[in-house]
C-alpha cells in the first residue's frame, strides 16, 4: 500500500489485501482495496469504513477445527494490525500502539536450585542418566532399531472409520494382490480369547467380531514383507458397515442420552446441604477439560517370535506382567511359556500400560498363526485413533462461603468420560485429592462414569488428579470474582493446616503448604509483579498480562504396587548386575537404582550395570506408573544390597575391615557366600490409602495478544517438595517435563471428532499440537524445597514425575486474568466467565469478546 506522507498519509495506489485460510480459496478483498484508494488512513472514518467493507468480504467456511466467527474476527484483527503499522506509532494514541506489534519472545533462560548432600554421594548426587549419551547420539536401541530376524514380517492394523455401528463385510482381495502381501488375520483366527482386556475389566475385543463401538477400533491385521507395504495393505482393505447410529462423542451428549457406565462414587463430609443453605454467599457453575494423547516419540510397537519354548516378546510397554497375561490369554499358551523383555521405552506417560495390550495381543496372534516373527509398529495416525487417551471430565458445582471467602460447603458432581468400555475408572480414586490444599467442613462429592463412542480411556500422566485439581482451583477463582478479591488471598485463607481432615477422611500430618506458599510469594516477587501488571494493563488496550499462583497436593499410592528386584555380584571382577521390575521410559530409574546400589555396597557406579527388565527375573511386577516406580524399586535394591552386606561383612572383618572390593568378593565366593539376592518390594495396607502427600506451588505470568489470542508464557516459578532427592538433576528434569506436558494439555492439545462418523480428526501434528520449544516458559525457574524429607519412605524422597503437572494450570489461570482485563475494557468485566481446557488461541481470543467496532486509532 503506497502512501503520500506529505498529504496526511493518503492512499495513492490500490493496495493488495489477500487472506488465506478463510475458506477454500484465497480471499481477495478487492472492495476494501477500492475503498481505501484516495482516503487518509489517519482519519478514523477511513478505518471504520474499511472494516465495514472488509467484514462483508470475509465469508469463512465451516470447519471442525475453528469457528467461522473466530476466523472472521482474526482476519479483521490482522487487518487492524496492518492498518496501525501503516499509520505509524507517532499518530496513534498510547493505549493502542502495542496492537501493531506481535508478541516477542526473549531468548529462553532457566534456573534450577537444589541442595547438595555430598555426604551421601553417589546417592543424592546430581548426575545425568547413565544412558544419556547413547540416547542423545541416537545409539540407544529401541524395538524398531532391532535388526530383523530371519523370515520376519510386518503387521498393520485395519481399523474402522465409523463409530456406533456393526461390522459388515471385510474384503481383503485388493490388499492381498499388493506387492509383498503375506497374510491377514481376523477374529476367527484367534486360538485363545478374542479380548485384550483382563478380568475383572469388561471384555474388549482384539478384532471386532460384530459391534464397532468407536472409529479406529481394529477389525483385522494385515501382514507384509515390509512395514510400509503393511500400511498400504491396511489402507486397501474394504470395510462395510451396517446399522449405523449417531455417535455419542462428549460428556454433554452422554448426559443428554443418559449414557452411563454403572459406576457411581459418593463421598459425604459434614452436612453440605445444610451448610450450603445457610452460607452468606452461594455460587454454582460448570467447568470441563478435554482429552489428551500421550504423544510419546515411539508409538506402540511389539515384536513376537514363536519358539520351541513358547513365545519371545519385545514390547514397548509399561506393564510387562499384563503383556505376558494378555498374550497367554489370546494365544492359549500358558504364561510360563511367554517371555517378555523390555530394555527401554521412547516415552510412556501411561499410554503404554493398558494401551500396549491391544497391539501386543494382535501381534502375538499373527506370530502364532504364521509361526514367524511378526513386528507390529503403529503409524502415528492409527496410534492416535485406535489407542486410549486421557479421560475428559466435566464438573457441576454449588459452593457456599463467607464474606472473607472461606469455604463452608461444596457440592461437587464429577462426570468422567470412560469411552466405550470401562478399562479404568478414576472417579473413586480421585476423590482423595478433589479438595486439593483447601479445607472445607462440608462436602458432597459424586462421581459418575459416562459411556461414549470413543476409544476406552486410560492412564495419562497424573490421571484424573489433574482434572480435579483444576476444578478446585476454578472454584476458588469463582469465589474470588464473586467477592471481588484477589484469588491469591482466597487460596491462602482456605489452606489446610496439620491436624485438619481431608474429604477422604485423612488427617494431615505432613502438610507444609502454607510455608511453601509464603516462600514462593517472596522469591517470585508476586505482589510487586501484580502491581506492575495492573499498570501495564491500564496502559495497553490490545496487549494484556496476567499472573496466577497455584498450589497443589498430590497423593502418592504405593500400596497397590509390587516390584521384584534381583542383584548379583560376579566373583571374577566384583562387578554388579541388577534387574528390577520397573520400566526405563526416560525417568532415569536405571540410574537411580545404580546410585542406591553403589552407595549401599560402597562400589563405584562404573562397576554396576542394569539389565533389561524381563518376566523371568522380575515376575509378577506391577505397571510402571503412579510416580512411585523409581522409589519402590530403589527400596527393593536397597534391601537386596543390605542383605548382601550382611553376608559379606563377616568376611570383610576377617580380611582386616577394608580389603579391596575384588579380593573381598573373590574370597566370599571361595567361602561359599551367596552373592545374589532377590526381593519383592510390596507394602500392602489393610485399607488402601495414600502413603504420603506431595505439595508444591507455582507462579506463572503470561502476555496475551487480544487481537489474535496468541500468548507467551513469560515466566514460571516452581517450588516443589520432592523430599530428599535421589538425583536432583533427574528430578528437576521431571518437574520441568511434567509442567510442560501439562501446558500442552491446558493450552494447545485438543481432540476433535467428526460429529457424523465419530472419527478422530486430530490424528496428526497438522491439527493436534503438543507443546514445542517455544511453548516452554521463556523464563523457567525450578526450586526443589530445601531441608525437606519424607518420613514415610525408606529412601526419604517423594514422587516427582506427575505432581508438577497439576500446577501447569497456573498458565491458564494467568491467561484468565489477562482476558479479564480485556473484558473489563469492553464493558463486560462484571460477570465470572469459565475458561475451560484446553484454552486454545481461539478460546482465549473469543473469551476477550473482541468487537471490531472498538478498533480505534
How would you describe this protein?
Belongs to the xanthine dehydrogenase family. Its cofactor is [2Fe-2S] cluster; FAD; Mo-molybdopterin. This is LOW QUALITY PROTEIN: xanthine dehydrogenase-like. Residues 137-245 form the Aldehyde oxidase/xanthine dehydrogenase a/b hammerhead domain. Residues 1-86 form the CO dehydrogenase flavoprotein C-terminal domain. By secondary structure, this protein is an alpha+beta fold. It folds into 5 domains: 3-89, CO dehydrogenase flavoprotein, C-terminal domain (Enolase-like, domain 1), CATH 3.30.390; 93-116 and 510-557 and 689-857, Aldehyde oxidase/xanthine dehydrogenase, molybdopterin binding domain (Aldehyde Oxidoreductase, domain 4, 2-Layer Sandwich); 147-246 and 295-386, Aldehyde oxidase/xanthine dehydrogenase, a/b hammerhead (Aldehyde Oxidoreductase, domain 3, Alpha-Beta Complex); 251-292 and 394-482, 2-Layer Sandwich (Aldehyde Oxidoreductase, domain 4), CATH 3.30.365.10; 562-682, Aldehyde oxidase/xanthine dehydrogenase, molybdopterin binding domain (Aldehyde Oxidoreductase, domain 4). The protein is 30% helix and 21% strand. The chain contains 22 helices and 29 strands. The protein has an 8-stranded mixed beta sheet with strand order 8-10-6-17-14-15-16-25, sandwiched between helices. Strand 3 (18-19) and strand 4 form a beta hairpin. Helix 9 (320-331) packs across helix 10 and helix 16 packs parallel to helix 17. The longest helix is centred in the C-terminal third of the chain and has 26 residues, at 629-654. It starts with a strand and ends in a 10-residue tail after the last helix. The mean pLDDT is 96.
Amino acid at each position: 500500500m503506497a502512501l503520500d506522507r506529505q498529504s496526511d498519509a493518503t492512499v495513492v495506489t490500490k493496495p493488495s489485501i489477500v487472506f488465506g485460510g478463510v475458506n477454500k480459496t484465497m480471499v481477495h478483498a478487492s472492495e476494501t482495496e477500492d475503498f481505501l484508494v484516495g482516503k487518509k488512513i489517519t482519519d478514523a472514518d477511513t478505518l471504520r469504513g474499511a472494516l465495514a467493507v472488509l467484514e462483508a468480504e470475509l465469508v469463512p467456511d465451516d470447519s471442525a477445527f475453528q469457528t467461522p466467527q473466530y476466523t472472521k474476527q482474526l482476519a479483521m484483527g490482522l487487518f487492524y494490525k496492518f492498518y496501525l503499522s501503516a499509520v505509524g506509532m507517532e499518530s496513534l494514541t498510547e493505549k493502542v500502539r502495542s496492537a501493531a506489534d506481535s508478541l516477542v519472545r526473549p531468548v529462553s533462560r532457566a534456573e534450577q536450585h537444589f541442595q547438595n548432600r555430598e555426604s551421601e554421594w553417589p546417592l543424592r548426587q546430581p548426575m545425568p542418566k547413565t544412558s544419556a549419551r547413547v540416547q542423545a547420539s541416537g545409539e540407544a536401541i529401541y524395538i524398531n532399531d532391532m535388526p530383523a530376524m530371519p523370515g520376519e514380517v510386518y503387521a498393520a492394523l485395519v481399523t474402522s472409520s465409523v463409530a456406533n455401528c456393526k461390522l459388515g463385510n471385510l474384503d481383503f482381495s485388493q490388499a492381498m494382490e499388493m506387492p509383498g502381501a503375506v497374510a491377514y488375520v481376523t477374529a476367527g483366527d484367534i486360538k485363545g480369547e478374542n479380548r485384550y482386556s483382563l478380568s475383572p475389566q469388561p471384555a474388549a475385543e482384539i478384532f471386532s467380531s460384530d459391534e464397532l463401538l468407536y472409529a479406529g477400533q481394529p477389525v483385522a491385521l494385515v501382514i507384509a514383507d515390509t512395514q510400509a507395504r503393511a500400511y498400504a495393505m491396511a489402507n486397501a482393505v474394504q470395510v462395510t458397515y451396517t446399522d449405523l447410529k449417531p455417535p455419542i462423542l462428549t460428556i454433554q451428549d452422554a448426559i443428554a442420552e443418559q449414557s452411563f457406565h454403572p459406576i457411581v462414587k459418593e463421598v459425604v463430609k459434614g452436612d453440605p446441604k445444610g451448610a450450603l443453605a445457610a452460607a452468606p454467599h452461594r455460587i454454582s457453575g460448570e467447568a470441563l477439560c478435554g482429552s489428551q494423547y500421550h504423544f510419546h516419540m515411539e508409538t506402540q510397537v511389539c515384536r513376537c517370535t514363536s519358539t520351541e519354548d513358547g513365545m519371545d516378546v519385545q514390547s514397548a510397554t509399561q506393564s510387562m506382567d499384563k503383556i505376558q497375561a494378555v498374550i497367554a490369554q489370546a494365544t492359549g499358551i500358558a504364561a510360563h511359556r511367554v517371555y517378555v523383555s523390555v530394555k527401554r521405552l521412547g516415552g510412556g506417560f501411561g499410554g503404554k500400560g493398558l494401551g500396549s495390550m491391544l497391539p501386543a495381543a494382535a501381534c502375538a496372534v499373527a506370530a502364532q498363526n504364521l509361526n514367524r516373527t511378526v513386528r507390529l509398529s503403529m503409524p502415528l495416525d492409527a496410534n492416535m485413533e485406535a489407542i486410549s487417551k486421557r479421560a475428559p471430565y466435566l464438573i457441576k458445582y454449588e459452593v457456599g462461603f463467607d464474606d472473607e471467602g472461606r469455604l463452608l460447603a461444596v457440592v461437587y458432581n464429577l462426570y468422567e468420560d470412560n469411552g466405550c468400555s470401562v478399562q479404568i475408572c478414576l472417579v473413586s480414586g480421585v476423590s482423595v485429592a478433589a479438595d486439593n490444599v483447601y479445607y472445607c467442613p462440608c462436602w458432597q462429592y459424586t462421581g459418575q462414569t459416562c459411556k461414549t463412542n470413543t476409544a476406552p480411556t486410560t492412564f495419562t500422566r497424573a490421571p484424573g488428579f489433574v482434572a480435579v485439581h483444576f476444578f478446585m482451583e476454578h472454584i476458588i477463582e469463582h469465589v474470588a470474582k464473586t467477592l471481588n478479591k484477589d484469588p491469591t488471598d482466597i487460596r491462602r485463607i482456605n489452606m489446610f493446616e496439620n491436624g485438619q481432615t481431608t474429604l477422604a477422611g485423612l488427617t494431615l500430618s505432613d502438610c507444609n503448604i502454607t510455608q511453601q506458599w509464603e516462600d514462593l510469594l517472596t522469591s517470585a516477587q508476586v505482589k510487586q509483579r501484580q502491581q506492575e501488571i495492573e499498570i501495564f494493563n491500564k496502559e495497553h488496550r490490545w496487549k494484556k498480562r496476567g499472573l496466577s499462583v497455584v498450589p497443589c497436593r498430590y497423593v502418592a499410592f504405593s500400596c497397590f504396587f509390587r516390584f521384584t528386584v534381583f542383584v548379583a555380584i560376579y566373583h571374577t571382577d566384583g562387578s554388579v548386575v541388577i534387574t528390577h521390575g520397573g520400566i526405563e521410559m526416560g525417568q532415569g530409574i536405571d540410574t537411580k537404582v545404580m546410585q542406591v546400589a553403589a552407595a549401599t555396597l560402597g562400589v563405584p557406579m562404573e562397576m554396576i550395570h542394569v539389565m533389561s527388565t524381563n518376566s523371568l527375573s522380575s515376575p509378577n511386577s506391577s505397571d510402571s506408573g503412579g510416580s512411585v516406580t523409581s522409589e519402590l524399586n530403589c527400596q527393593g535394591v536397597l534391601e537386596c544390597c543390605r542383605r548382601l552386606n550382611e553376608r559379606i561383612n563377616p568376611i570383610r572383618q576377617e580380611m582386616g575391615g577394608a580389603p579391596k572390593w575384588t579380593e573381598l568378593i573373590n574370597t566370599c565366593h571361595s567361602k561359599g557366600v551367596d552373592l545374589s539376592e532377590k526381593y519383592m518390594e510390596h507394602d500392602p495396607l489393610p485399607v488402601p490409602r495414600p502413603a504420603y502427600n506431595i505439595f508444591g506451588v507455582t507462579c506463572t505470568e503470561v502476555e496475551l495478544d487480544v487481537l489474535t489470542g496468541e500468548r507467551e508464557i513469560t515466566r514460571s516459578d516452581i517450588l516443589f517438595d520432592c523430599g530428599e532427592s535421589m538425583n536432583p538433576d533427574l528430578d528437576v528434569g521431571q518437574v520441568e517435563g511434567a509442567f510442560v506436558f501439562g501446558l500442552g494439555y491446558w493450552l494447545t492439545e485438543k481432540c476433535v471428532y467428526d460429529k457424523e462418523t465419530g472419527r478422530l480428526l486430530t490424528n496428526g501434528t497438522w491439527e493436534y499440537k503438543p507443546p514445542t520449544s517455544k511453548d516452554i516458559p521463556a523464563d523457567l525457574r525450578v526450586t526443589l524445597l530445601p531441608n525437606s524429607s519424607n518420613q514415610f519412605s525408606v529412601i526419604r524422597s517423594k514422587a516427582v514425575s506427575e505432581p508438577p503437572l497439576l500446577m501447569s494450570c497456573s498458565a491458564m489461570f494467568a491467561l484468565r486474568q489477562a482476558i479479564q482485563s480485556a473484558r473489563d475494557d469492553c464493558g463486560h468485566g462484571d460477570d465470572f466467565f469459565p475458561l475451560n481446557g484446553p484454552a486454545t488461541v481461539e478460546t482465549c481470543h473469543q473469551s476477550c469478546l473482541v468487537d471490531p467496532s472498538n478498533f480505534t486509532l
